[in-house]
Amino acid sequence: MSLQHEVENLLNTLGVTAHGAEPVHSPVDGSQVATYAQATPAEVEMAVAQSCTAFKTWRMVPAPRRGELVRLFGNALRDHKDNLARLVTIDCGKPLSEGLGEVQEMIDICDFAVGLSRQLHGLTIASERPGHRMMEQWHPLGPTLVISAFNFPVAVWAWNAALALVCGNSIIWKPSEKTPLTAIAVQAIFEQAVRDFGDAPDHLSQVVQGGRDVGATLVADPRIALISATGSTAMGRNVGQVAAGRFARTILELGGNNAAIISDKADVALALHGVLFSAFGTTGQRCTSLRRLFVHDSLYDSFVPALKAAASSMPIGDPLDSAHLAGPLIDEAAFAAMQAALEEAKALGGILSGGERVTGNGVYVRPAIVEMTEQSGPVLRETFAPILYVMRYNDLDQAIARQNAVGAGLSSSIFSTDVRECERFLSASGSDCGIANVNIGTSGAEIGGAFGGEKETGGGRESGSDAWKAYMRRATNTINYSNELPLAQGVTFDLG
Ligand code: NAD
User: What is the active site of this protein (predicted)?
Assistant: First the structure.
């Protein structure tokens, strides 16, 4: 069966079709698999107006009841997990096991959000005034815009949507223009949950398809209360500035330039495994992909050849075939960016192995390992491709300093069995990233923790822990149950 037929069948099982003026090409083999329609300006305007109306109703629904919708959505995802995962793979090219993992992540965050719907609690705070009580409440915030990137075409939306829904917000999703099909499918699954729920407001969660122009229109709209934007740092710089201009709240989840340190006290076999998955799994197309590796001098001459051998024999090909550990790059532009970075690294003295194109349809490449003496040029920025820059180190403090000496601050790890080294890495003067791991790679986070990074990664946090607070507004309430009107800080205002 051609991919085009498979896409039609997968969408048919959900009772939807994709059609419009824009072609959709699958990175799996480069073929056109569907068409889709971009939203017109009038449709964008209508979506925002409808989202405002839906919010006014949804915010008054008790939070545990809102959780019931998310519970039903999680169950609908369980029913459609296999089909949606195949569509994820066809849409963005990640291996099917990772497509299944991505849908599982959606289910997991739904479970988390259902529990959260009964725990959106504030504090009771001691008042300094007699006969007074002080407390804080968390209220729904408003229409929430979710802008997502191609490489996690469904999970990133779910991280945001599950929390936003239990927090009482309406949602507009602007998916990546590179992966429109999965958004159509997820919307159909969500609408099934809405039907089972019974009395959710219309247009509670909508998809608005289109490119950066559509995204920019939505970002500028003063009726959107919260913008959760996932993508490149260049995108976030633009979105952040526009949002700041109108004091909108943002959650920015941007690019990473993640590093790992391989200590001379590492469990070498474990480190090798962790490095391979982090650097070359998902074809290096995760925000948390490992891009820089600092290897202790005493291990370097054995570890790096072993890494090169393992990388060169990694099975690469059709991501729907479970024999392959990595699929294609998203498109030709990604390949051109990869080659440009490799050329620049070579010109700076980098020694390259791998990185060549694998013949066949689709943009398949061998993982690239570049040995560098200096951390310069392309090593300092994110190239969204399977390139690992490898450098020697002698002194842990120096390795941590070099790890931190880049713009991005998303993910980091150390491989060591020495507790002092590990704790040093995790301490206030250790890794400056939002994610710091020990004896696992930089990628593959769980939903229970707050996810995000510092510096040019944008500072946003989403998913677990207390990330839900970004989706609500906090009101501090002081209640006077006395017959007096004492003022705080001893201030007097005596009417005589
Ligand atoms: P991208 O920045 O090209 O696009 C991401 C999304 O932003 C798309 O939906 C796009 O249409 C939209 N967009 C672009 N410019 C915009 C603008 N000015 N206003 C409004 N919307 C705009 O990113 P991509 O190529 O799809 O994804 C790869 C990038 O995303 C990498 O940099 C990766 O590190 C990052 N990423 C970050 C995270 C994270 O959680 N930190 C997760 C996944 C991907």
Answer: 253
Of 389, 410, 438, which residue constitutes the final position of a domain?
438
Q: Is the CB of 239 under 6 A from ligand 1?
A: yes
Does the pLDDT of residue 495 top 90, yes or no? no
pLDDT digits (tens, 9 = 90+) for 365-397: 999 999 999 999 999 999 999 999 999 999 999
Ligand 1: residue of 98, 147, 148 to mutate (most ligand atoms within 8 A of CB) is 147
What ligand 1 atom has the least distance to the C-alpha of 330? Answer: 25
Tell me what pLDDT residue 301 has: 98
Range of the domain at 190: 3-254+458-476
Question: Above 90 in pLDDT, residue 139?
Answer: yes
* 186 has a pLDDT exceeding 90: yes
Exposure b/e, 437-454, CB count within 10 A at least 16 = b: beebbbbbbebeebbbbb
Q: Is-catalytic flag, 253?
A: yes
* Side-chain-side CA neighbours of residue 395 (13 Å): 4
- The CA distance from 468 to 112, in Å, is 11
Check: CB of residue 329 under 8 Å from CB of residue 27.
yes
Ligand 1, residues 88, 109, 212: which to mutate, most atoms within 8 A of Cβ? 212
Answer yes or no: do 63 and 175 share one domain: yes
Q: Does the residue 487 lie in any domain?
A: no
CATH code of the domain containing 293: 3.40.309.10
* Domain assignment of residue 491, yes or no: no
Ligand 1 pocket check for 457: Cβ under 6 Å: yes
The string of pLDDT tens digits covering residues 66-108 is: 999 999 999 999 999 999 999 999 999 999 999 999 999 999 9
Sequence-separated (6 or more) residues with CB below 8 Å from residue 477? 134, 135, 136, 137
Query: So what's the pLDDT on residue 496?
Result: 80
| Residue 410 CA, ligand 1 centroid: distance in Å | 15
Residues contacting residue 260 through CB under 8 Å, at least 6 positions apart: 274, 275, 278, 290, 292, 293, 294, 412, 413, 414, 415, 441, 442
176 Cβ inside 6 Å of ligand 1: yes
The pairing of strands 357-358 and 387-393 is unpaired
- Mean pLDDT of the region 43-61: 98
Q: Does the beta carbon of 147 lie inside 6 Å of ligand 1?
A: yes
For 277-303, the pLDDT digits (tens) are 999 999 999 999 999 999 999 999 999
Tell me: the pLDDT tens digits for 304-316? Answer: 999 999 999 999 9
For ligand 1, say whether the CB of 64 is within 6 Å of any of its atoms: no
CB of 116 closer than 6 A to ligand 1?
A: no
Q: Contact, 206 vs 47, CB < 8 A?
A: yes
Within this chain, do residues 415 and 267 fall inside the same structural domain, yes or no? yes
Q: What is the CATH number of the domain that holds 207?
A: 3.40.605.10
pLDDT in tens, 241-263: 999 999 999 999 999 999 999 99
- Residue among 105, 230, 332, 461 whose CB has most ligand 1 atoms within 8 A, to mutate: 230
224 and 335 co-located in one domain: no
